[in-house]
């Protein structure tokens, strides 16, 4: 007889939801989290699309979410210009479509409390060092020298999982062109200041993503999310790309903050935290095996994340995959078979959900971004060379838009540009 | 020459850390030099700027105390110049209040 029906490793979005799902069905669940509380080790951009959260918690509006996102902004930055699209639509604010800015410290603790109230047990402050594997089946964990057994183990230990490889489900580490390093500052500002700077009503906020010069022209980007009393300002850069240029990651963030377009947004703000984290960006092709004998993998540990340039998604996928892993584990436990075959329905259930549907839809996005350097250096400059003459009046002869744009486009190569645009609309 | 205008140590000092003075959870291999191309990768990629090239000499500077436990150095150099990369001992390390 095992000590628990299920052990969940990691109290992030995926782990807490898996534990909640299992505990709600009356299963004996243990969650082991290495942080001293849920969220203590976690960081995100970020904004969470709440559709998958609402499916698990009908009262998700009570969660410590920051601001409802009512402004979508995306920018292409050249070294000396910035082109921004500012989009808002009532439909994006409707229940089911809406998204919120979020800080993981408070949010993950709320999720853990939900699971605890449903009956899950938690051990904090200890990392699981290894898995107990008997006759090829994962049958428990080793943490701080202690062995604890369970019929099923769910790995929800994030992108830097040390355990998926120990379970024989992945290689030791992802390839460095499939992962990005992120650095962020949380900067406190009064709520009214945030609302006036980001043009939002009280309680409402904005998401703002940047590509181009903010990552020194390499694959990557910057972000600003408006929280209740702070803004999250950060950069994300693909590791293999950082190595192709000279600016260290921490300096990229500083350069971004100093930009004349950005500095006024955070002026007089007080930085209260500096955080770093890895983003899995390789999409479908970097996923590990997600089902093994006695073991399931969910969330970032399964590399369920997508960075499309105009939006980043990982948390809604983590929540949904955590729920589905919990449901698959319940079925296997009820059937008395937590072998690989007994757990295999997790894969089918995930395949039939939006999680794998979207992962498959955006299968070619990572490759598009990696093989289209002009998106990060080239297109931002082209936009500048078209836009600046529109607004420049200095008494010299003016030209029609056509006369301005054609030479610029020709310089880039009309064919090259058309091919790029075609690829973009097909993969993003 | 890239201009470094930011003091990352100052930013790290805003964070809450429980520093484990006894155990280094990340260790460089014996004999690694600051001029080693692998080491220079970490100088560029570690968001906490914990890998540093000294002003003089070729001894690499690395201090695990401000580590954000992101895993970047493990992914880039885990198989080359890192002797070990583990999560810190129980209750130790970074503790995000905002995240
Ligand atoms: C800079 C950045 C910006 C992002 N922006 C967005 C965004 O705007 N929107 C979005 O949806 N997503 C975004 N993401 C992605 C999103 O943050 C992740 O997809 C999401 O956090 C994954 O949740 P998770 O529960 O799978 O993993 P995590 O949140 O990483 O949770 C893993 C947990 O496991 C614990 N753990 C790890 N190893 C062990 C062990 N051995 N023993 C015990 N516990 C362990 C960790 O402490 C942690 O609590 C962003 C990510 C980054 C880095
Ligand atoms: S884990 Fe991250 S913060 Fe820590 S030393 Fe490595 S790169 Fe730097």
Verbal overview:
Chain A has 428 residues and is an alpha/beta fold. Chain A has three domains: 4-64 and 103-173 and 285-352, FAD/NAD(P)-binding domain; 179-280, D-Amino Acid Oxidase, subunit A, domain 2 (D-Amino Acid Oxidase, Chain A, domain 2, 2-Layer Sandwich), CATH 3.30.9; 369-427. Chain A contains 15 helices and 19 strands. Chain A has helices spanning 13-24, 51-56, 104-117, 191-197, 239-242, 249-258, 263-266, 315-335, 340-343, 345-351, 354-361, 365-370, 379-391, 401-412, 414-427, and strands at 4-9, 29-33, 47-49, 68-78, 81-87, 99-101, 121-124, 128-134, 137-143, 146-155, 179-188, 204-212, 220-226, 230-238, 270-280, 291-292, 295-297, 306-307, 312-313. In chain A, the strands form four sheets. In chain A, strands 1, 2, 7, 8, 9, 10, 16 and 17 form an eight-stranded mixed sheet that branches. In chain A, helix 8 runs antiparallel to helix 10. The longest helix of chain A has 21 residues, at 315-335. Chain A is elongated, with a radius of gyration of 23 Å. The mean pLDDT of chain A is 97. With 99 residues, chain B is of the alpha+beta class. Chain B has one domain: Alpha-Beta Plaits (2-Layer Sandwich), CATH 3.30.70. Helices cover 20% and strands 17% of the residues of chain B. Chain B has three helices and six strands. Chain B has helices at residues 8-12, 37-45, 72-77; strands spanning 16-18, 26-28, 51-52, 61-62, 82-85, 93-95. In chain B, a hairpin with an 8-residue loop joins strand 3 (51-52) and strand 4. The interface between A and B is large, with 52 and 40 residues. Bound molecules: flavin-adenine dinucleotide and iron/sulfur cluster. Iron/sulfur cluster (SF4) binds at residues 26, 46-48, 50, 67-73 of chain B.
